[in-house]
Amino acid sequence: MDRLGIVPKPLKTELLGGEIFVDPSDAVFAIEENLGKEEYILTADKNGIRISGGSEQAVFYGKQTLLQMRGDCPCVRITDKPAHEYRGFMLDCVRHMFSVDDIKKLVDAAASLKMNRFHWHLTDDQGFRIWLNRRPSATIEGSVRKRSEFGSLKEEGEYGGYYTEKQMREIVDYCAERFITVIPEFDVPGHCSALLHAYPDIGCTEKPVEVKTHQGIFEDILCAGKDKTFEIVFDILEEILDIFPSEYIHIGGDEAPKTKWKACPDCQKRIRQAGLKNEEELQGWFTNEIISFLKSKGRKAIVWNESLKSGIVGNDATVQMWMDPKKHSVDFANTRNGKVIVSDFFHYYCDYPYSMTPLNKTYNYKAIVKGIKNPDNIYGVEAPIWTEFINSFEHLCYMFFPRFAAVAESGWTVEKNKNAKDFCERFRCYSRILSNIGITAAPPHEWNPSPLSRAVGTIGFTRKNVANKPKNK
Fold this sequence. Notes:
473 residues, eight-stranded parallel beta sheet, five-stranded mixed beta sheet
């Protein structure tokens, strides 16, 4: 069984005795209504290779397993289906952009690992990466920053760029062919410096705002008291909805300081008129306005867990949990039957060095969040990568893999079938799939550093990238 080396590990593998030479082109396929949408059965024996699935998507997953079995292989029957419905990865293309061709390589890797969501982070303080026909100023003015100074990674000269409508549609279509849904993120009301640079009049002070050159949490956020804010936000969303057919749109909601709202007459007037208690409830109201807009268009919203602080965000939102010390996500799941996507900062964020987040730490994290009573409220898992400190595709792949695959296995494989040592061995076999795609993973000796190496690496990373961060301005 070990000779199969399949990632993610299937639900059930039965050895039938004997061997067979596997040539994927010899396989026959069938749709069987009695199987689940993502469930398949793969049989490779003396009678040939057969894949039955509950849908074309399920058959596609069977094919991905078969591609990992190429060559001499034990005769086997694999019965397989996912542990979680949502299995995704997030790519930040704001801090540093990546070409369409390189994004396709990540999509190919995700498809081979049976992931089905691509969360594309496209707007933030450091750039606005979506071309807009209705509001071109957002892109033309908001996509360029004067320089880049992310910790020790400093780049002089303007940094800019955006994805055209044609490029975004190309990615959407490419993903759809691989049964991956693209979920774009338009982050509001915070992390909007780039948008406010183009439209300062939808900020509370209406003063000029620079596209930020470094990472951080910034006080300039969208004004919740001005009707024009919603006019522009809804215009942007209209175009996003036209390009991205996904059921869900990610609307951010994280790290939105309320300093400007507290001093803003328009925001204070809105609080009084809407019968709200405070600025946190104002963000909840703001979020609900966008949720209602999306609902009117037949869509749904995903929000980061900070959006739950108000206690009034609608139950039909889905929450992405990344760092939630007060357990708002747990309360949302338990008291309101809300759905939660797990992307825990300390385990699933792939932009931090292996000294801080070794592979075993990522792999062994249980996606069933402690405190959530109904496991069905865990919608799934996601591996995010932020790119403040990543400015090349090679470095991106080094940071992402094998942790990307570890999260994929947590999304697909039931907990009782998981084993970190076994995963490492199987990933070595799987690496040839990545090589064929054009992706080079971190070398095995760097996956799980010793305690001393972890301490040294963590201190070094912090000194280079946190202590070096410019002051917010």
